[in-house]
Amino acid sequence: MYWMESRVKTILLAALLMIAAAGRLAAQGDAAKAGAAKTAVAMADTARIEAAKADSIAVPAAVASGIPADSVFADSISRQIALAVDSTAGKGKQRRDWTSWRPDPQRALWLALVIPGGGQIYNRKYWKLPLVYGGIIGCLYAMSWNNSQYKDYSQAYLDLMDDDPGTASYNRFLHLGVQIDASNEQRYQEIFKNRKDKYRRWRDLSFFVLIGVYALSVIDAYVDAELSTFDISKDLSLKIEPAVLDNRSSRNPISSSSLGLQCKFNF
Predict the structure, then answer these.
(1) Is 99 a member of any domain?
(2) How many domains does the chain have?
């Protein structure tokens, strides 16, 4: 009866220690989840082996010396489980090897589409970010400035075309001491109209350039990710050198020869 009770206590203690070890492994994160199940099975096997060893070796010696058998079982199993948990916890979290990492072209494409410069960040080409954001910010500033100039000259042109003397916003565009009268009104109407159309054209052009910069950043991110696995070893080379070519125009080797360029590819 005493041996049965000791055996049950030992098994229950081992189960509790295994549950605690599994909880500790789960706290290590997703990287250790795959190894947690294997570790639990290994700990169960270790506990069973240690229990068998304890039955055959430790228990008779413990009984003979007056030490309780369940204490011998508990100490042995606790040591084995603790060693297994510590070894697994040290191997659960591994650092990524960035030297062998290669970007995924599809992911780089979608990141560049959603976030301007996101593809360059994913490809770890941070030096391209000032080019991307500089181009985008420059186009936005050009759009804003040209739009404000277009509105000012449009209003000045409208004020010049009407007969209301109270609307004279065009005066701030004139040089000091210059007045618009019947002798030069037609000329200034033409000037304001041309400038209005010019700034509207530049505003629209800035918008299309902005789209081009955005599209170029997307293409660059995708192509850069695709070429990350391209072989750029020293075996790849292109040589262009002068050569004497035989055009076979006559049997005379001198007259049938012509100068040209020869391309050599090594791959």
Answers:
(1) no
(2) 3
Tell me what pLDDT residue 182 has: 76
* Tokens encoding 139: 């186009």
* 214, 143: one domain: yes
Token pair in block for residue 144: 């804003």
Predicted local distance difference test score (pLDDT) of residue 223: 93
- Any domain includes 100: no
- The residues pairing with 266 across neighbouring beta strands, listed in sequence order, are 237
Contact 107, 221 (CB under 8 A): no
Are residues 121 and 204 located together in one domain of the fold?
yes
> Quick check: is 78 in a domain?
yes
| Predicted local distance difference test score (pLDDT) of residue 3 | 44
Domain that holds residue 51: 2-92
- Using the 3D structure, point to which of 92, 123, 146 is the last residue of a domain: 92
pLDDT given at position 31: 46
The amino acid occupying position 199 is Y
Same domain, 117 and 204: yes
Q: How many whole angstroms separate alpha carbon 133 and alpha carbon 100?
A: 29
Cα of 72 vs its chain's centroid, Å = 55
**pLDDT mean by block of 10 residues, the chain; 267 residues:** 50 60 54 54 59 54 54 56 54 65 90 93 93 96 95 87 75 75 81 92 96 96 88 68 73 71 72
Three-state SS at 266: strand
CA distance 199 to 144: 11
The pLDDT value given to residue 18: 60
Secondary structure class of 162 (helix, strand, coil): coil
Bridge partner residues of 239 (DSSP): 264
CA-to-CA distance for 7 and 41, rounded, in angstroms? 20
Quick one: which of 160, 182, 186, 163 has its CA closest to 171?
160
Contact present, 57 and 72 (Cβ < 8 Å): no
Q: Is 128 exposed, middle or buried (CB count within 10 Å of its CB: 0-12, 13-18, 19+)?
A: middle
